[in-house]
Amino acid sequence: MTQLNSLDAELAQELGDFTEDDLDVVFTPKECRTLQPSLPEEGVELDPHVRDCVQTYIREWLIVNQKNQGSSEICGFKKTGSRRDFHKTLQKQTFESESLEGHEPSTQARPRHLNVLCDVSGKGPLTACGFDLRSLQPDQQLENLLQQVSAEDFEKQNEEARRTNRQAELFALYPSVDEEDAVEIRPVPECPKEHLGNRILVKVLTLKFEIEIEPLFASIALYDVKERKKISENFHCDLNSDQFKGFLRAHTPSVAPSSQARSAVFSVTYPSSDIYLVVKIEKVLQQGEIGDCAEPYMVIKEGDGGKSKEKIEKLKLQAESFCQRLGKYRMPFAWAPISLTSFFNVSTLDREVTDVESMVGRSSVGERRTLSQSRRLSERALSLEENGLGSNYKTTTMTVNSFFKQEGDRLSDEDLFKFLADYKRSSSLQRRVKSIPGLLRIEISLGPEIISCSLTPEMLPVKPFPENRTRPHKEILEFPIREVYVPHTVYRNLLYVYPQRLNFANKLASARNITIKIQFMCGEDASNAMPVIFGKSSGPEFLQEVYTAITYHNKSPDFYEEVKIKLPAKLTVNHHLLFTFYHISCQQKQGASVESLLGYSWLPILLNERLQTGSYCLPVALEKLPPNYSMHSAEKVPLQNPPIKWAEGHKGVFNIEVQAVSSVHTQDNHLEKFFTLCHSLESQVTFPIRVLDQKISETSLEHELKLSLICLNSSRLEPLVLFLHLVLDKLFQLSVQPMVIAGQTANFSQFAFESVVAIANSLHNSKDLAKDQHGRNCLLASYVHYVFRLPEPPRDPPKSGGAAAALPDPRYHTYGRTSAAAVSSKLLQARVMSSSNPDLAGTHSAADEEVKSIMSSKSADRTCSRMSYYCSGNNDVPSSTAAPRPAGKKHFHEELALQMVVSTGMVRETVFKYAWFFFELLVKSMAQYVHNMDKRDNFRRTRFSDRFKDDITTIVNVVTSETAALLVKPQKENEQAEKMNISLAFFLYDLLSLMDRGFVFNLIKHYCNQLSAKLTNFPMLISMRLEFLRILCSHEHYLNLNLFFMNADTAPASPCPSISSQNSSSCSSFQDQKIASMFDLTPEYRQQHFLTGLLFTELAAALDAEEEGISKVQRKAVSAIHSLLSSHDLDPRCVKPEVKVKIAALYLPLVGIILDALPQLYDFTAADARSGKNRANGSDEDQEGTSTINQNVALAIAGNNFNLKTSGTMLSSLPYKQYNMLNADTTRNLMICFLWIMKNADQSLIRKWIADLPSMQLNRILDLLFICVSCFEYKGKQSSDKVSTQVLQKSRDVKARLEEALLRGEGARGEMMRRCRAPGNDRFPGLSENLRWRKEQTHWRQANEKQDKTKAELDQEALISGNLATEANLIILDMQENIIQASSALDCKDSLLGGVLRVLVNSLSCDQSTTYLTHCFATLRALIAKFGDLLFEEEVEQCADLCQRVLHHCSSSVIGTRSQACATLYLLMRFSCGASSNFARVKMQVIMSLASLVGKAPDFNEEYLRRSLRTILAYAEEDTAMQATPFPTQVEELLCNLNSILYDTVKMREFQEDPEMLMDLMYRIAKSYQTSPDLRLTWLQNMAEKHTKKKCYTEAAMCLVHAAALVAEYLSMLEDHSYLPVGSVSFQNISSNVLEESAVSDDTLSPDEDGVCSGRYFTESGLVGLLEHAAELFSTGGLYETVNEVYKLVIPILEAHRDFRKLTSTHDKLQKAFDSIISKGHKRMFGTYFRVGFYGSKFGDLDEQEFVYKEPAITKLPEISHRLEGFYGQCFGEEFVEVIKDSAPVDKTKLDPNKAYIQITFVEPYFDEYEMKDRVTYFEKNFNLRRFMYTTPFTLEGRPRGELHEQYRRNTILTTMHAFPYVKTRISVIQKEEFVLTPIEVAIEDMKKKTLQLAVAINQEPPDAKMLQMVLQGSVGATVNQGPLEVAQVFLAEIPADPKLYRHHNKLRLCFKEFIMRCGEAVEKNKRLITADQREYQQELNKNYHKLKGNLRPMIERKIPELYKPIFRVESHKRDSFHRSSFRKCETQLSQGS
After folding, report:
1. What is the largest CA-CA distance in the chain?
2. Any residues with CB less than 8 A from the CB of 470 and at least 6 apart, and which?
3. Within a 13 Å sphere around the CA of 1740, how many CA atoms are in the beta-carbon half?
4. Residues 1325-1341: what's their mean pLDDT?
5. Is 673 helix (H, G, I), strand (E, B) or coil?
6. Is the pLDDT of residue 1213 over 50?
7. Could you tell me which residue, 770 or 393, shows the higher pLDDT?
8. Which of 387, 448, 397 is nearest to 265 (CA)?
9. Sign of CA dihedral 1090, 1096, 1099, 1101
10. Strand partners, 741
11. In the 3-class helix/strand/coil scheme, how is 963-1032 assigned residue by residue?
12. Distance CA 1830, CA 1852 (A)
């Protein structure tokens, strides 16, 4: 590092100096909810335990921060603040796709006029006489376009222009990468805080009854019916008026403001539909049963007036007297349940089981929640807001109109739960529970986060608490139904007493109205009652006594009272609860007191110094209690003298329950014991000490403590979690504090450590506790982060014996006092495991000196007066009394590391399983150690002892090998291994900030080598190392750690003068080598840049691998590099360009890696070839013999594994390798990294590098740029930042598919694309995995996250992505300029030029911003000027594409783009005119481009284009240099030609809505190009595309067949190969229409003429491509037979080319086609045909024209009629269009001349008898159709329908001009024939049809019963109108008079004969098919059939004798012989006779 030049030194300084320490130890005050922290009462000497608890709750957090952490986190940008405003700095980029949107509506608004097509004859292209170009105004022109400037200057100008106004940070524009991969983000644990469930604010608004006569008191609590548990404490409130309050004035000495609350905040951790809010109402005690007292409320109404008014007054007086006398007693009155189901809405509850758990953190072990969503404990996963309640949940007001009367004998909670369960079932109670009418209105709403003016359950005011509010809100304490695992953080010490039942049934008569006075006593004197009982409503805050409510005349009453007591912090044996029982006399008796004493009972609060809680059944003493009674429990009082008199003979008669909610009393035996023992060690105590019910002497103390450490973990999880902070603090204290017990040093380190391990294990294993995304238990994480601090030095360790002078080596402390042999064996073990081996006997004075006093002078006294009392132990308060540290003082971090190393067995396993916890403890304790150390001793090397370093090395090695071992295990514990791996990485990351970096780098190296050695599974290995490195690389000093300023400055300076003095050539070659190696991952690089080298090695390995599952790893690798680069890019320390150049230089090897991975990149071009964009989708050469190494070769290389270094090998030797393709996102991330390096690296360096690259490598770079262009295409507003996967799956347009068909197999890109699509290669392997674990954590937010972005957000995203697209494309353009400039010196321009052009054309075909287009066109112009000739000679294909793209931009709506495009197009023409052939070619290409543009682009605007043509004309006129040449006239001619094509377009525009008309027009345009095959071909393709869009696949295929025939014609002229089709004749089998394509006319151009037939389709592969695509479309359209015909033409060509791969796929497709024919059979649908006639002058040309329309199968007449009527209605106005409903001939004279009439008739294909012989199959009857028939019924009177005997029918046969299917869907009718059927002929036809139907139904296979029954029903059904029987009766009843009709009559008779026979067969068949339930139906059918048969028989059997007369006359005498003799005789006679 000594050679750093000054600049580098400065940069290093700026990026953060090494010397200062990165870690900062800060104390942050704990946030307190209340105004004052909750503390015990003052002036009491506390127990050590209580003191420790309180201190834990109020001391500050100790947090270790990383100073520069902010900057490494993509500073600022990660924090939403600055990212939010970032977009304001961006310029809005204009995209044509969006600038169009604004203009659209105006064009739509105009009413459409149907322009008449005047010229149908097709006499060549329409001339543009109407449109004279010159009449237009040209756009503004670019000045100095025509000036001569040297190419270099021009390039320089362009570059300067490009460099201005660029976006500095590329990554700021790029969407931040998925959090899923961001392992380096360590979630900051949630700060420990008090647990609050879902808060509900309940306000009592009204409480009143029908009459108001006395004060009433309400208490409200929540109950869970299902759990049968009261889940909140009581909230007392009353709404009494001042008058009624006055009644009680005597009994309320004072009224505290806190007791006047009318609203309460309840908290519910586990919401469910079973929660009820129960309101109990009490009144002042009065005489009488509850029922009697409630009577008036039920019968009297306030408003009755008169008598009732008097009654009310009387009652009031009565009440007043009771209040004065018995005001302090209450009686139960009424209650009402309110269900909260509707509040905890139901959707919450479905999830209740699964999610509520996660509420207190239940989550599956494998769950990794991303940061944004890992909602931690205190935030309650099930907060109501997310459950659809949230902000939109309005405040609900619940109203109760009737109350249930309390039943005196059913007051207990059990009864209440029974009532509630009943109520839940039927929502009313049984009849006998009377109800009292009343009104209670309660308002329930979600408790907001901050409620002003509220009090905690201890009555402490919560912030904010304004001074002047009168009524506060009260927070009501929750009693959750299940455990809540949140450690205590506030002091809370409450006791709840529930008296339940008293049984005085056998007691003397006086005990009837019983009340209990409850007091909390601190002694036995009456004055010792403590004011610690919380008061109720409208009274004092604290009381000394409280009375239970009274049930009148009940000797064994139930109680429902809840007494809430604030426990004193220090409890003694004297504290107890005292219960005094009284009888209250309700009637006033002279001189008798109100209370008569019945007895006493009591409950001591402490038992064995532990708080007593639970249920008790206490005896009752009937007389005064003896002294010292409270020392014993009531059940076990020793015998007294005199003896105590007990009720029921000392049996328990009083049931009571006591519960505590306390954060000082653990209520757990194990914890209690542990704490007690710890305190006995810490402070002076007298032995033996008492723990629970055992006594412990000093000698057994050590043993007991060890036991208690071992048992600690068997305590219940809940108390352990609640006291977690204190338990861990104590354990850590024990582990470093040598204890002297009974004069011996006891050491608990190992036991304490094992206990910590066990606790960590049980916390991690509990299903109920949350973990963060790295699987770390949240409770432990927040403990380490906030709470943990170095254990305090002991305050004078208690020396109860012997001096502690001769303390042995601290190393031995670990083992406690075991025998020496055991120690040595353990030590040996330790040595084996630890690589450290210090001399065992050495003393450690040096180690001791190294560390100065642990007290650092930094800390000030941060405590305030009241708190200092608890903080005396804080180790940051300098304590003057601190004794000098004993020599054996251990450092916590050393002890911990040692314990980790020497642990064995299960402990060891657990330690490494949850290593993260111990690592964080180590780091935090090291940081504090360094912080407390003297700053002078700050060399990192000497900071920590060698032993400690050895231990760390051992630990790292062990964790690494454990990780590897887990991965190799057969039961694959990958997840566990991943977590260990990540925690190790974080550990080393932290060590980089604390220890010597060389030491840490060594550890990293060990790690990598060790993993490689142990793991066989490659993806797993890389994945582990990647996550590991990714974390390390996120270090804020990453760049410095990598010494990034060491690398060569721009070009390397020569290392020593001797070399530079040698001849310069060798020097330069040396330099070149050096430059080339900068782009490679060399060993030197890896040494110098350690971490980056490792990372690149992993990336390269991942990309190169091909194992299973590698794609996920590849994503990880790329994502790691990507996040690193983006953090540099956005790091404020790296803003200066010179810093960025340095950083980019550090990453240069990445370029080499990306180039190697080229074949694996996702091909966006293939996925994105979108409609309207002519994309060259693969290699664009003519595939036939290109001689030079050009595009194809380069691409072939790209497709194969081709290493940079072997650029000499020829292609044949390249091994073919199957790659693992990257998915789209990974590729995009990799690309953005590539672009970033290219943008920020030193440009001259890049040029030098390019100049030395072999041309193949250059072509790879161009390929990469090509993909980059498509990758960063602007996607428009809708799909915002992430390119949605739909875009990638958009169907590809016809053109792209066509080209693919052509290029399939040729060129390597085809190869690549094929591989991309290979089935094994899942397109998005990443997606499925991504969602794997996100499911759980996206919970219910997932649904609405994406959709509802606001418009502003969408705009902002569009703005950013627009800038990204522009910036990315500009970087690509810079790169291309670099390539052109660097290579203009080289000679391989030709193939390079093609590559550059391909990239430029691709970028022009994407949606680009005007900014980019300006620069791109400038570059293009420079290219044309520089390499004009090359361009036109070599790059014909590129040139064609270029023309099309430029022309497309000439029609842009943005004027700037237009003028740029015009200038470029003009230059293109101008530079091509040098050679005549070139201009002809350009001319042809421009015309073709225009034609295809016009046909395809939907957003194409001819107005703009025309203006552009005018501008080009202006250029031509002003171009003085060219005036002498024929060029200007040629240009003008060309422009006129283009103009005429545009004219057609305008026409097409008008018919945009009328698909048939549009097709006719396109057809005509195509026809007009009969003489220029290229253009005709283009138009046929345009038609095909339009058809495909409308899903007319057959027609599209026909267009392609015509195109193929056209190509075949020209190919057969050029070359006569036997395997080629002989012109269009060969296509006849596909369609008879194809003959149109034969090139007959003499004026047809010969193909050799320049510029003609030069397109890519006029080749054999072009022909095959067209045919293959046609076959594909036929197949889609269902014409499988035709597919065969098409392939018959293809196969000979393929055979001739010996292309067996294609032959395979062809035969495969044929097989599929034939399979489809077999499988689909009759199910196939072909078109439906309609005759459409147009009548009316409005139609112009169409008037009186008739067409046959082909519609999709099963189109009904109303559909087509609706469509046409709707369309023409829009054209002419709906009122002018009329559809003629019948099919009779139209009489024009009868029509309204102002209307347009359409006549639509369904027609069927018609065949003559002879034709039917050939057309056998269903397909044949639907293909090649030219004749159609429809029938029109009529009668002679003129009605269409009549009786059977007068019904005539007219059959009309139409012949069309071409056969269907054709290139259009409507064909005009050219001939019409008609013939008429007489009624009887009509009958014959109908009967034939019926019989045929029957025959078909009978013979159907498999038989279809439904169909058969339908036909049968229609034939023999009794009710069929005009059915067979009627037909027979009309025509067969008598023999016709007219002999002409005899034949018909007979024919009909025979028809009937066959018909009835078929009916019989059908009935028989049906019998076999029916099920049992149809038997009756069958009988009915059979009956009907026989009836019909009977009716028909006479008519069928009657023959017309005339028809059966013998044809020859026989003499009568010969008649017998006729009978006798054989026929032969007869015949001979006849012959003789004739």
Report:
1. 166
2. 257, 260
3. 13
4. 35
5. helix
6. no
7. 770
8. 448
9. negative
10. 744
11. HHHHHHCCCCCHHHHHHHHHHHHHHHHHHHHHCCHHHHHHHHHHHHHHHHHHCCCHHHHHHHHHHHHHHH
12. 5
